[in-house]
Design brief:
98 residues, alpha+beta, four-stranded antiparallel sheet, 3 helices, 4 strands, 39% helix
Length: 98
């Protein structure tokens, strides 16, 4: 087998896993969302960016994850959020305060 064939087989076999993972972590259409900001940002930078798009609920498991109630998800992305995830699917991101 050539390397290109092996790569094609790997991609074909892993794509259903990627679809399942994306569906599990997809942010809800309404309500709070876990916004993932660049990991080198401080908690203060992440909170400020998230707060400019909605009401900050709390930090997630890491300082670069902020749980925010943002009505405009596009605004979160324009303020630096890399990913928007379902806060209940991301470990350490429960909606209740710790």
């Amino acid at each position: 087998m050539r390397a290109s064939q092996i790569t094609l087989i790997l991609l074909a076999s892993l794509s259903p896993l990627g679809v399942a993972l994306a569906a599990t972590l997809a942010p809800p259409r309404t309500g709070p969302v876990a916004a993932l900001f660049p990991p080198w940002w401080s908690a203060r930078q992440s909170i400020a960016a998230a707060g400019s798009a909605g009401a900050v609920i709390r930090l997630g498991a890491f300082p670069c994850i902020v749980i925010v109630l943002a009505m405009d998800r596009t605004l979160l992305r324009s303020h630096g959020a890399w990913l928007l995830l379902d806060p209940s699917a991301v470990g350490g991101c429960s909606l209740s305060p710790s």
